[in-house]
User: What shape does this take?
Amino acid sequence: MVKGCFMRMGYKRYINTANYYKSNVSRPHKFLMHVVNHALGHMKGGYEVVVDYIMCMLAALTLNPPYNFSKVIFTQMKNSLTDDRWLMYLRFVQM
Assistant: This one.
């Protein structure tokens, strides 16, 4: 479903890779990737790469299937607590 969604977005590169780059899609979808990656991503930098759980969120926002965003957010927060990166919460939780 995610690969089909990115093909509909006009992804210009090879589709069977682990991470996708937001520079390879059209401008409106690039903005959507940028917003989701900054708001719901747990990274401090490297926002050009869209990781797998963000790709699933983008596919859910674009195609509108049922998707549990709260579970993803809770899982990422729980993983951050068990690692050495316990201060790196999601952006909207930090605010």
